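Colleagues,

For the teaching module next term, I've prepared a clean inverse folding example: a structure given as tokens, and then the sequence designed for it. I'd like students to try predicting residues themselves before seeing the answer, so please don't circulate the second half yet.
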């Protein structure tokens, strides 16, 4: 089970997430996000993250050249795309396509290594039956409103390839609550 903690903005939260068992960390390089990280700041400590932890750059309508430059500078493994990027704009390397689930179905034929299915925003969940259908034929990372209190139920309902949380383990935007983060990761990893 891939367990991703997203919206990492500082060294302390990153190292704590790794210590608690996270298998992926997300760095949001979208300046309008309250969880935005700067490439310069992250570059000062990202080398302390063990090589086996997936480093995910999160982007919204960013130029492929910028995504590739960030990947080279920071050793990022994955580009997670949230904007209006077309398949032709996908950078080389592993790509996760983020989709907001706001209706009763989604299009799943994006040329991406995985689909990250997110809620309508604001830490809200969506109909997990939609994600469960997608997970039958695609690698699905379930996001959107996941917390330590509902992640086990979400995994049982969807059987995703991975789970992702940001606001569900925060003390405030961009700063993690380490007790909630630990509980989320441990619960996700032990759910069968």
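(Answer key — instructors only)
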């Amino acid at each position: 089970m891939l367990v991703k903690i997203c919206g990492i903005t500082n060294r302390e939260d990153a190292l704590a997430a790794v210590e608690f068992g996270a298998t992926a960390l997300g760095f949001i390089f979208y300046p309008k996000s309250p969880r935005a990280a700067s490439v310069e700041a992250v570059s000062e400590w990202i080398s302390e993250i063990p090589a086996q932890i997936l480093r995910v750059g999160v982007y919204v309508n960013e130029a492929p050249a910028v995504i590739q430059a960030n990947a080279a500078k920071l050793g990022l493994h994955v580009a997670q795309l949230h904007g209006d990027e077309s398949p032709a704009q996908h950078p080389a390397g592993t790509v996760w396509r983020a989709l907001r689930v706001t209706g009763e179905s989604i299009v799943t034929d994006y040329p991406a290594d995985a689909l990250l299915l997110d809620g309508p925003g604001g830490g809200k969940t969506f109909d997990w039956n939609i994600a469960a259908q997608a997970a039958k034929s695609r690698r699905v990372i379930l996001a959107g409103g996941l917390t330590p209190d509902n992640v086990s139920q979400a995994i049982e309902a969807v059987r995703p390839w991975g789970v992702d949380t940001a606001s569900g383990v925060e003390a405030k935007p961009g700063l993690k609550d380490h007790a909630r983060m630990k509980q989320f990761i441990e619960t996700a990893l032990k759910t069968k």
